[in-house]
Amino acid sequence: MKPPTGTTFFDKVWRDHVIAKLDQESDLIQVDRLVLHELSGSQALRALEEAGRKPISRGQVFTVIEHLISTQPGRGPCDSVSSSGPAMIQTTRDASKKYGLHFIDYDDPRQGIAHVVAPELGIAFPGATLVCCDSHTSTIGGVGALAWGIGASEAEHVLATQTLAQAKPKTMRVNFEGTLRPGVFAKDMILALIGTIGAQGGIGYATEYAGSAVRDLPIDGRLTLCNMSIEFSCKYGFVAPDEKTFAYLKGAEFSPKGAAWEKATSYWRTLKTDDDAVFDKEITIDCDALEPQVTWGISPQQVGSIRATVPRPSQAVDKEANALGERALTYMKLHADEPIRGTPIDVAYIGSCTNARLTDLRAAAQILKGRKVKAGIQAICVPGSTPVKRAAEAEGIDKIFKDAGFEWHESACGFCGHIGDNRFADLRVISTTNRNFESRQGPKTRTHLASPATVAASAIMGCIADARELS
Ligand SMILES: CC(C)[C@H](C(=O)O)[C@@H](O)C(=O)O
Ligand code: SF4
Fold first, then answer.
1. Rounded-to-integer distance, Cα 424 and Cα 66, Å
2. Whose alpha carbon is nearest atom 1 of ligand 2?
3. What is the mean pLDDT of residues 421-427?
4. The CATH number, out of the four listed (2.60.120.260, 3.40.47.10, 3.40.1060.10, 3.30.2350.10), of the domain defined by the range 170-242+263-286
């Protein structure tokens, strides 16, 4: 008789949302929250309208303008970074008003990137299932929700039924153990994991991030970790909720209040993995020894310590990695055995749903205070949301950035992905974002992914720099 084993956080949340078993692998899942942005969300809203249908539960649907809207101060209702932007923005605006959805327009004081706004406003909560037409939706696992990215046709189905058919994934736990040294952050943790497991390492898994280093992270750091789950092909990433989670969500606009809050937190406290639960896969990352990480290639798996040299593709684990390595060095105009630190840069970018929350801006400001961006370097900050921007301004962080020589923008997805603006074309960018694919940030841009502190230090030095030398 197999000894009974405990249940994982994932299994508990999944079990509480199964409406019906569809077949051996798939279940029909109840969806608690649907978040739509104007790029792919507008497609779902238009398809629903063309089918003559309407949302089954408009109170569970949230729409936000954040992908295509310009980040320039003084932006107008349809100022966009792409030619198709104005129409998609207006479609989202019109449908949201027609159906009475929770709508956050470009000039709403709560506006921001969906994956920053949903936790901030308590739209997401522990144990909730939340979907969005975006591959980085797993970010929201940082507050203990089960959140994943879907396509526009799936979003149309959720709009009409508030359910979704899902194949149940295997479970993985990544134990980040130890204590981060000063100058090392959540971004370094997740980059190190992806460098270890590979960009395909999470296919078919739901990943729980655990361990002492995760417990020590602020919620912003947990959101950073979960954000990049998809960069190792893992659709679901999450951190089981704890008192830090509850403190973060308490009092948020859409969080339960009063007796409902007490009832909710008593349920949320049950959402943790049992001590004797067994995972399909477990990995441990030693954080005591962790160094700041920076990518050198064209995949987030092509990453290493900022103190390392660019690796030789011939030393890669297999032929495929070898070929990707050769392609990366050619595209990135780098040479094997050269130190990554000291590589000249053209642009320093702080933004995105990965690393532009208040703790991220504080970490960068600590490096920038009293210093100047190197002459000739473009330095831009796009806060993750308008509330983050306002909170940073209340602390004088915007002044530190501007005095150093950074541009201080309005919140949106901005220059994370190449949606239209070509100002980084053919330049080397060190960036707090989550993807370093070829031409990700514009035609022939060469992107290095790093933490906000590393980006800030690099802006000052004019080359890839170790923030620990400046702090
Ligand atoms: C536009 C959206 C579909 C896309 C994604 O899902 O990842 C974008 O957010 C990105 O980061 O490339
Ligand atoms: S900030 Fe970047 S990664 Fe995040 S949703 Fe927007 S485009 Fe995608």
1. 20
2. 352
3. 92
4. 3.40.1060.10
Q: Return the residue whose CA atom lies nearest to atom 8 of ligand 1.
A: 134
Q: Which residues line ligand 1 (CB under 6 A)?
A: 39-40, 67, 134-136, 149, 417
CA of 391 to the centre of ligand 2 (A): 21
Is there a contact between 371 and 451 (Cβ–Cβ < 8 Å)? Answer: no
Q: What angle do CA 51, 129, 228 make, to 5 degrees?
A: 105
Give domain limits for the chain: 9-167, 170-242+263-286, 295-469
Span 50-97, pLDDT tens digits? 999 999 999 999 999 999 999 999 999 999 988 899 999 999 999 999
Q: Is the ipTM, as predicted for this complex, more than 0.85? A: yes
Alpha-carbon distance of 350 to 212, in angstroms, equals 27
Res 333: pLDDT? 98
Q: Encode pLDDT of 450-463 as tens digits.
A: 999 999 999 999 99
- How many angstroms is it from 134 CA to the middle of ligand 1? 5
For residue 35, the SS3 value is strand
Instruction: Looking at the CA of 414, name the nearest ligand.
Output: 2
- Token pair, residue 222, equals 């947990």
Q: Which residue has the tokens 């890669």?
A: 316
Asked whether residue 46 carries a pLDDT value surpassing 60, the answer given is: yes
Average pLDDT (113-121) is 98
